[in-house]
Amino acid sequence: MWAARHNFGWDVFVMSDNSFKSKARRHQKSTGTSYMRARRELDRRGDTGEAGDVPALADAAQMLSVLGLGEASVLDIAALWAARDLPVGTDERVNLGPLLRVPLGLGADGVPVWLDLKESADEGAGPHVLQVGKTGSGKSTVLRSMLAGLCAQHSPDLLQLVLVEAKSGEFEDFAGYPHTAAMLGPAAVMGPDDCGVALIELREERARALAAAGVAHIRHYRELRASAEGADLPSLPTVMVVVDEFPELQRSVAGCADVLDTLLRTGRSLGIHVVAVGQRGAGGSLINSRIVLRTLTAEDSHQVLGNADAHELPTGVGMYSPEPGAQAERFRGFLVPNDLIRDLGRRFAAAAAGPE
């Protein structure tokens, strides 16, 4: 391998022809195709490097820069939140354009790759997303930067998180976020039924709020609240239900499979979005958007992407597809240290509290 210089100034590595041949052989073995076809497929997608054409580094400073926050001061955060507030009692048109969009990392030539969790009627690729990757693939790093990025752009009046843990401490750095409405699990701590009960209560509470306003869809609630008639309605934030080890919870926690299935089917109208995270894509058939890091097997990659491309991804590099069968974009996930995740939470709390 030989060193080259990316136009952003970071060192990257370009594969020699021998390395490319080795990668083609591995691709041939994982897909069962011919060697020449494997070479053509790799060449067609520009896969001549360990991470294709994505940068060798995507750090927290770059993420904040993409978000337009620079050093992310409390005043900057509060200003960004205020600029994205939905209208209340003004009869203005509700424009969701910049909402529920978050950069996953840097793709080709350092251009950000964005996830848009708005539903298709609002020109997004949501409302739900499936994230898959084996242990050590960088799955948690991408998830944490995604959640921090969403909170950086949305006030707690626009976005709330419900974090469902498979093991203790998975989301502890988000405990102090003003956006975190609930942390559920692990099942061994809560009891086998508590997770399902809590999610049922969330769904029923949201349905009651819509019914009390005389509407059946979150879109109509926002439109009503924007009118003079609905000026007194309370804010009804988007709820992001983040489920760690999604397939495992479906299998092992009593009642969770049915509840999660119901949320996936009905969450769209209630303003509830599910982020389903796991090592495999089982149980994600109701989800269009997919974020895939290195998978355990070529078959796992096929299940979520329709090809084996994710099986040999380098650590920290992912592929994003807005729907099954769509061309997936490669990206280098943002590496955001744990202490910065916590520090951002403190700044978000200060911004939510307002001026002293």
TrEMBL record:
InterPro entries assigned to the protein according to its UniProt record, in alphabetical order: FtsK/SpoIIIE/SftA, FtsK_dom, P-loop_NTPase
Keyword tags: ATP-binding, Nucleotide-binding
Region listing for Disordered, in residue ranges: 24-50
Highest taxon above the source species: Bacteria
Name of this chain's protein: FtsK domain-containing protein
The keyword Nucleus appears for this protein: no
Biased composition (Basic and acidic residues): 38-48
Annotated binding of ATP, by residue: G133, K134, T135, G136, S137, G138, K139, S140
PROSITE patterns the UniProt entry points to: FTSK (PS50901)
Tagged with keyword Manganese: no
Domain (FtsK) ranges: 110-312
